[in-house]
Specification:
Blueprint lengths: L1 H7 L7 H13 L16 H10 L14 H9 L7
Helix pairs in contact: 3-4
Length: about 80
Amino acid sequence: MQVISKLNCAQEDQSDIGVICRSIKRSLGRNDGANWRHIPREANGAAHMITRNYTRLDERMVWLDEPPVCLLDQLKLDDVAAEF
């Protein structure tokens, strides 16, 4: 959870974790309005679904604002669909 707190913090952190968080923010192109949060492994079936079904695609996929329809049921089961 310490990493999530540091990802959400706007202040510069010079610790080893701070360096990693800056790298994550930079590589993912963090928006100012973004909010990071921890999702327990047990409630993250959508991530498993994506890796099982979409990692073999030849093209890159980017989802903005709303998740693809095929993930909506799984997100409801994961109890995160209220975010969308």
